[in-house]
């Protein structure tokens, strides 16, 4: 398993430019180590960057709004055959998320786990998560 990644590799993996990665370094959002004048990043460095808005952190920090509000979190993995299929799933889900659901107490997370697997994580009110989860199941399976 690879121990260190370069700026270019991290940018490619996250789907951003190398300038964005350098901006993260400058702002302190990303930390790394300089080896021979070149930045190198560990898995922990990268997870801290992308984990700052971790669904579990967001979920655990939310406050109860009133006695009727039930917050839930749902995560599931989707097998994909290609990067394009993963991108198509993401776009379809984001379109539905943005067009149909509204409100502050809802979150949608998308993660590329491997070239063969993506992870979708939903959090928010029980009604939102269960309805959106059902829609995903009907649409994708």
TrEMBL record:
Pfam families named among the record's database cross-references: HTH_17
Every Helix-turn-helix domain range: 6-49
Database matches in InterPro entries: DNA-bd_dom_put_sf, HTH_17, SinI_DNA-bd
Name listed for the protein in its UniProt record: MerR family transcriptional regulator
């Amino acid at each position: 398993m690879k121990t260190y990644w370069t700026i270019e590799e991290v940018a490619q993996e996250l789907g951003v430019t190398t300038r964005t990665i350098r901006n993260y370094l400058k702002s302190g959002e990303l930390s790394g180590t300089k080896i021979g004048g070149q930045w190198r990043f560990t898995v922990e460095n990268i997870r801290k960057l992308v984990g700052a808005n971790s669904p579990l952190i967001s979920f655990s920090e939310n406050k109860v709004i009133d006695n009727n509000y039930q917050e839930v979190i749902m995560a599931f993995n989707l097998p994909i055959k290609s990067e394009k299929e993963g991108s198509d799933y993401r776009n379809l889900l984001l379109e539905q998320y943005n067009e149909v659901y509204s409100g502050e107490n809802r979150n949608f997370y998308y993660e590329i786990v491997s070239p063969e697997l993506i992870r979708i994580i939903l959090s928010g009110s029980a009604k939102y998560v269960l309805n959106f989860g059902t829609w995903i199941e009907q649409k994708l399976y």
